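pasting for ref
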Amino acid sequence: MKSTDTSEAEVAAAGSVLVIGRSEKVLRETVDHLRRNGHTAGATNDYDSVLARYDASSIDMVVFGGMVPPATKERLSIQLLEANPTMTLIQGLAGIPGLIAAQVEAVSRSDRLEPGSVEYNRQDRRATISLRSPEQVQLTGFWGTAFIPPDPQSTSEVIFDGRLDAGRHELPLPAHIPSSVSFVVVRVGTDVYPFEVAPLPMTSAD
């Protein structure tokens, strides 16, 4: 497989994110999402050269794709945290670029609401949102459509986008969203909350 890598300069600024994964397509599209969200972002699938090519002290977050071998992830995690103890390490939920970007946003922004204000119930397939004041709310579904490594395919759909009054609200998932390799992201104002709809098969992440 051809190596995908970005310039060290692209992840040398404050607020920077490095994505480590396998799929060139997923890495490229994830970086595009992150940059549109205002992050300085880069990506690599050259696991052996991460510490040589990137200055860990300048990276705020590292996202690991699901197809990074466990031993490699453990080794890199130890090395990265030794170089930068303040770095945040994130395990990607799946090889879905918009979902990975939402996970980064969740770490960056989900701090306004009280714990438990936004929940997802797998059994009922619905998100529950408790608001103290009116908020703009968006519920988006993400799911995989093809799982041939190394480039998983996926799609997404905005399920709800509107302003909700103070109180408790329940937003169900449509029946056509599959019960496997699927996820939802709830946005409440600037806060972001990703949830897994159903467990992932072992081979479906990027």
